[in-house]
Design a protein that fits this description.
Enzyme class: translocase
Largest sheet: 6 strands, mixed
Number of strands: 22
Cofactor: Mg(2+)
Keywords: ATP-binding, Cell membrane, Lipid transport, Membrane, Nucleotide-binding, Repeat, Translocase, Transmembrane, Transmembrane helix, Transport
Distance between the termini: 59 Å
Structural class: alpha/beta
Domain ABC transmembrane type-1: 19-292, 628-863
Subcellular location: Apical cell membrane; Basolateral cell membrane
Oligomer: single chain
Helix content: 55-70%
Length: 1188
């Protein structure tokens, strides 16, 4: 800042207002001297006095204009620096490497943007005072020496003593701020996880440990905020009492030395001290505080973030020739996700292979050559806030014909027809308004719409049911993309024979590679299921088709014409509410009452009155009286400052806790319709305002307001006529304040709401980082971020200019008041004493700065109260049923695990569509029930109803206890769930398994052993105490599912729900999960929602849902007798061989109903190595990568 600033020429409006401040008291002294030596006949002296009065008026007017011009320019410079920093932070976030992503979190980056960069706004305001302060002090000492001689040194000694004292306060304050910032970071990070994983937290009934976690961090944060607030209180009190102490010391010494006091001396001294006091005791320490705070604590995290590792991708320009011969070549490849972790967690192997091709995972050794444009569909579907169309086009131009064919191929046509605005429907943060299947299809459609040369598809079929999966495979992967090279990662082996080249990976190594027939001949037994299928087809006399030219099979024609690809309801995102109108007194009352009881508030007011009285009395210079009053002023001043800060910080703590508890208790629907950025904005920016800025501004306003009353009371008691211009001035002020507040309050509200999209865009970009980089869309996302930021800057700049507009007008009116007083004194010169003139003029000049500052601070308080208003709004959210009620179930409930649904209807919100209609079913004790249905049939809603994520209509009974009559925690803690999206939280492995610390280490290790994670956790540096990365990102999806399974084992509940838990895992992990469930939960009632029919075919009964109603419910082999049933059709969709195998398993289960038989794993054994024929096919084709 200094380096750049030194090159700029100083301009007229820069710091001349500080010069005027020093000159003005000189004019004042000369004018008072005229009255001291008053001679009615001396006209020359009168004209000279008029000159001095004009000087006072002009200097006041000049001060009003230049002061605000200076502040406008420095604030604008601060704003520009902040915007540039935000741009840099986002730009950096877009190119973070995998290692760097492990060293930071979304919460941390949000905090950089919401809190740390704001210091630049404040820094520039005070920066110049570092050199102006000492210069101005020197000039004032010179003038005071002329006026009262050596006595001025006594006063300056007090001032100079205050400077290092306040500088020390400033440094201490920034030390506390840095500690506060670390706790704030931690709190925002935890909040980010709580809001992201709220569904799982509610289903596990984990609200209390998370509340304890946030409250613990918040308590530490508040203790530091309280300490820094006390420092601020001391600083402010010393600032307000400094004037009294300095004058008292100066004049006591002056009188004791034997000098006689005159009016001109007193008032020149008072005015000169006032001029320098603000700079020396407020601006100079603030400058030191801001510079040290910014350099040490704000720049440091920003700098640390900007120096994190970047991913360097070489963008080699592609020739037309390269694009024609698109290919991916990999030789002798060795990669590590993180050299330190050394592949302790083999993150899903195939995803790692694609990451290497994309350049996300740098090769340690070996070669990866890519010829052609790449595009990519990620395994965990990513959508960003915007319309469905913008998600699919992703920056490309709309070509209606191609767009329609992509929608058809990705089975989205029917969904679009059911949406209110078709493909222009806005989807929320993280695609909260879409189902998992819809997100996966939008994710795939985005990749397909790009006209690329090579398509990398990371398991796009896992999140959809078999029927939709087959449609996507035939219409999209082998249909619309048939002429392009595709690398498809899949666990679904029925699609392998369509591949030109199959690559089999096991534990990070390639164990087999070749065409389908080569692998068959080589003895790898992963195709035994599919042999029969081909034999049957050949018997019918069909010619074998080449995999690349496959036409539509019978299945897909049927699937296309039926209502297969049924659509599902979508929630829409609500606009952020913005309260309008004035902020009522009740809001202030709520704010104060949150921090103190009525008694403390009364004490505060009486304390304030005492101080006010002592301020008025200070006019008399009797040394003893003056000593007593000065002492009282100091004591009451410090007491009031500390008590007020205590009350206001307590208010903030209470309001934060109320808001957080309200968020924890609100139903899940709230999180579906409110983006994560919007909720985090209240916890980061609004709570940040309440923590640091609002208490300071409030206390400042109250002190200034009381001083104004004191000044007017003293001045009017001496010269009653001074009230004549004060009253119209006051009316004009209040009118102007009302006029200004109507605009500025709403500008402030707009500024708050335009900030949310900046955070939302950042967090959604970080979630889809791989996709953004694969599509080379960094530039476009940077522009979108800048557009959000520009919108916010427009509101911020408006706020800045309206504030200055208001201040200039207020100061202008005050300078009119000073002019009237100055010339009024001269007009009434015959009846005025010198002391009265001095009092009137010095107080009117003091009033000038103070009055406009008081009115502006009152406006500022009202503007900041919008943050209180926004926080209070979130303390009144709709609440779900109580966690515990009077009616508690027996301790051993449920002992059997009998679940009954009786005429249940279910909707996620009171005005939302009914997603379950008249459901009546019974799940018997120890029964294993599979729940199937097409995408959007209401499978997950059935579980939501059971967990009461929204209140269902009708009766749900568990072991005869009506679930709606007991507390939510009593209900949810007695059921275990393995969710669809496995969620791990930042914290230790132990906390993730057992947040209530209810289990011994022995139990934890046993549970990990059951799910085969024991070895992996033992290899971690601190074993169970190892801190996990954000969202457990250092585990693969499969491993996260296994941790969720371990949680279920630990809970030992009679009811287990599995919600599509194996959709994203390989057959081997799936097999492990199924085996563990059969062994560990054989005494439990198990409800399994599944896309893969082979995972539930060995269930005792299968419940088939369709459009929210029960379509069929019986044993699997019974359902398979009904050829018109949905279940029979779903089984047929899997292919003939797989269907035959499923039918066989169902028959075996029916013969031995209590012994669950599981079909063998499709990939049963491997040769150590399969030789690759030299003439392997290099033409464009489909490469399937599978893992056992």
């Amino acid at each position: 800042l200094f380096r750049i600033g030194s090159k700029r020429r100083l301009e007229e409006d820069d710091m001349y207002n500080e010069v005027i401040k020093v000159i003005q008291p000189v004019f004042l002294g000369k004018l008072i001297q005229y009255f001291e030596r008053y001679d009615p006949d001396n006209m020359a002296a009168l004209y000279e006095a008029y000159g001095y009065a004009a000087g006072i008026s002009l200097s006041t007017l000049g001060l009003a204009l230049l002061h605000h011009l200076y502040f406008y320019h420095v604030q604008r410079a601060g704003m520009k620096i902040r915007i540039a920093m935000c741009h840099m932070i986002y730009k950096k976030a877009l190119c973070l490497s995998a290692t760097a992503m492990g060293q930071t979190t979304t919460g941390q980056i949000v905090n950089l943007l919401s809190n740390d960069v704001n210091k630049f706004d404040e820094l520039t305001i005070f920066l110049h005072f570092l050199w102006v302060g000492p210069l101005q002090a020197a000039a004032v000492i010179g003038l005071l020496w002329q006026e009262i001689g050596a006595s001025c040194l006594a006063g300056m000694a007090v001032l100079i003593f205050l400077m290092p004292l306040q500088t020390m306060f400033g440094k201490l304050f920034s030390k506390y701020r840095s500690k506060t910032a670390a706790f704030t970071d931690s709190r925002i990070r935890t909040m980010n996880e709580v809001v992201s994983g709220i569904r799982i937290i509610k289903m596990y009934a984990w609200e209390k440990p998370f509340a304890a976690l946030v409250n613990d961090v918040r308590r530490k944060e508040i203790s530091k905020i309280m300490s820094s607030s006390y420092l601020r209180g001391l600083n402010m009190a010393s600032f307000f009492t400094a004037n009294k102490i300095i004058l008292f010391v100066t004049f006591t010494v002056y009188v004791l030395v034997g000098n006689k006091i005159s009016a001109s001396r007193v008032f020149v001294t008072v005015s000169l001290y006032s001029a320098v006091r603000l700079t020396v005791t407020l601006f100079f320490p603030s400058a030191i505080e801001k510079v040290s705070e910014s350099c040490l604590w704000s720049f440091s995290p920003v700098q640390k973030f900007l120096l994190l590792d970047e991913l360097v991708k070489s963008h080699v320009p592609l020739t037309q020739e390269d694009r024609k011969e698109a290919s991916v070549e990999i030789e002798d490849l060795i990669c590590y996700w993180d050299k330190v972790m050394l592949l302790i967690f083999t993150a899903l192997l195939q995803s790692s292979l694609l990451s290497t091709v994309l350049g996300e995972l740098p090769a340690e050794k070996g070669v990866v050559k890519v010829k052609g444009e790449l595009t990519y569909a990620s395994q965990q579907p990513w959508v960003f806030p915007g319309t469905i169309r913008s998600n699919i086009l992703f920056g490309k131009e709309l070509q209606p014909q191609r767009y329609e064919s992509v929608l058809r191929a990705c089975a989205l046509k029917r969904d679009m027809e059911l949406l209110p605005d078709r493909d222009l429907t806005v989807i929320g943060d993280r695609g909260a308004t879409l189902s998992g299947g819809q997100k996966a299809r939008v994710n795939l459609a985005r990749a397909v719409y790009q006209d690329a040369d090579i398509y990398l598809l990371d398991d796009p079929l896992s999140a959809v049911d078999a029927e939709v999966g087959r449609h996507l495979f035939e219409q999209c992967i082998c249909g619309i993309l048939k002429d392009k090279p595709r690398i498809l990662v899949t666990h679904q082996l029925q699609y392998l024979k369509a591949a030109n080249q199959i690559l089999v990976l096991k534990e990070g190594h390639m164990v087999a590679r070749g065409t389908y027939s080569e692998l068959q001949r080589s003895g790898v037994d992963f195709t035994s299921l599919l042999k029969k299928d081909e034999e049957e087809e050949c018997e019918k006399g069909e010619a074998p088709r080449s995999p690349r030219s496959r036409t539509l099979s019978q299945n897909s024609i049927r699937s296309h014409s039926s209502s297969v690809l049924s659509a599902e309801p979508v929630h829409t995102i609500a606009e952020e509410t913005r309260i309008e109108g004035t902020i009522g007194l009740h809001m202030y009352w709520k704010y104060f009452r949150a921090g103190a009881n009525v008694l403390i508030l009364i004490l505060l007011v009486t304390n304030v009155d005492m101080l006010h009285v002592s301020t008025i009395g200070n006019g008399d210079l009797c040394i003893l009286c003056s000593s007593g009053l000065t002492g009282a002023t100091i004591i009451f001043g410090f007491m009031r400052g500390l008590i007020m800060f205590n009350v206001l910080v307590n208010s903030t703590e209470t309001l934060h806790n109320r808001m957080f508890n309200s968020i924890l208790r609100t139903p899940v629907h709230f999180f579906d319709v409110n983006p994560i950025g919007r909720i985090l904005n209240r916890f980061s920016k609004d709570i940040g305002q309440l923590d640091s800025l609002l208490p300071w501004t409030f206390v400042d306003f109250i002190q200034v307001f009381l001083q104004i009353i004191g000044v007017i009371a003293v001045a009017s008691s001496v010269i009653p006529w001074i009230l004549i211009p004060v009253i119209p001035l006051l009316i004009a002020f209040l009118f102007l304040r009302r006029y200004f507040l109507q605009t500025s309050r709403d500008v402030k509200r707009i500024e708050s709401t335009t900030r949310s999209p900046v955070f939302s865009h950042l967090s959604s970009s970080l979630q889809g980082l791989c996709t953004i980089r694969a599509f080379k869309a960094e530039e476009r996302f940077q522009q979108a971020f800048d557009a959000h930021q520009d919108l916010h800057s427009e509101a911020w700049f408006l706020f800045l200019t309206t504030s200055r507009w208001f201040a200039v007008r207020l100061d202008g009116m005050c300078s009119v008041f000073v002019t009237i007083t100055a010339f009024g004194c001269l007009l009434l010169k015959d009846s005025m004493k010198a002391g009265d003139v001095g009092l009137a003029l010095s107080y009117s000049v003091t009033l000038m700065g103070m009055f406009q500052w008081g009115v502006r601070q009152s406006a500022e308080v009202e503007n900041m109260m919008t943050s209180v208003e926004r926080v209070v709004e979130y303390t009144k959210l709709e609440s779900e049923a109580p966690w515990e009620t009077q009616k508690r179930p027996p301790p051993d409930w449920p002992s059997r695990g009998l679940v009954t649904f009786d005429k249940v209807n279910f909707s996620y919100s009171s005005d939302g569509p009914v997603v379950l209609k008249n459901i009546s079913a019974m799940f018997r004790p120890r029964e294993k029930v599979g729940i199937v249905g097409r995408t959007g049939a209401g499978k997950s809603s059935l579980i939501s109803a059971l967990f009461r994520l929204a209140e269902p209509e009708g009766k749900i009974l568990v072991d005869g206890v009506l679930t709606s009559e007991i507390g939510l925690h009593d209900l949810r803690q007695k059921m275990s769930i393995i969710p669809q999206d496995p969620m791990l939280f930042t914290g230790t492995m132990r906390k993730n398994l057992d947040p209530f610390s209810q289990h011994s280490d022995h139990d934890l290790w046993n549970a990990l052993k059951e799910v085969q994670l024991k070895a992996a956790v033992e290899d971690l540096p601190a074993k169970l105490e190892t801190e996990l990365a954000e969202s457990g990102s250092n585990f693969s999806v499969g491993q996260r599912q296994l941790v969720c399974l371990a949680r279920a084992i630990l809970r030992k509940n009679r009811i287990l729900i599995i919600d599509e838990a194996t959709a994203n895992v390989d057959p081997r992990t799936d097999e492990l999960i199924q085996k563990t469930i059969r062994d560990k939960f054989k005494e439990c009632t198990v409800l399994t929602i599944a896309h893969r029919i082979n995972t539930i075919i060995d269930s005792d009964r299968i419940l088939v849902l369709d459009a929210g109603r029960i379509h069929e419910y019986d044993a699997p082999h019974v359902l398979l007798q009904n050829q018109n049933g949905i279940f029979y059709k779903m089984v047929q969709q899997t292919g003939k061989a797989e269907a035959a195998s499923l039918l066989q398993t169902a028959k075996q289960v029916s013969r031995a109903p209590h012994i669950a038989v599981k079909s063998p794993c499709p990939i049963a054994k491997y040769l150590p190595h399969v030789p690759v024929p030299e003439s392997h096919n290099k033409s464009p084709g489909l490469c399937a990568v599978s893992q056992y």
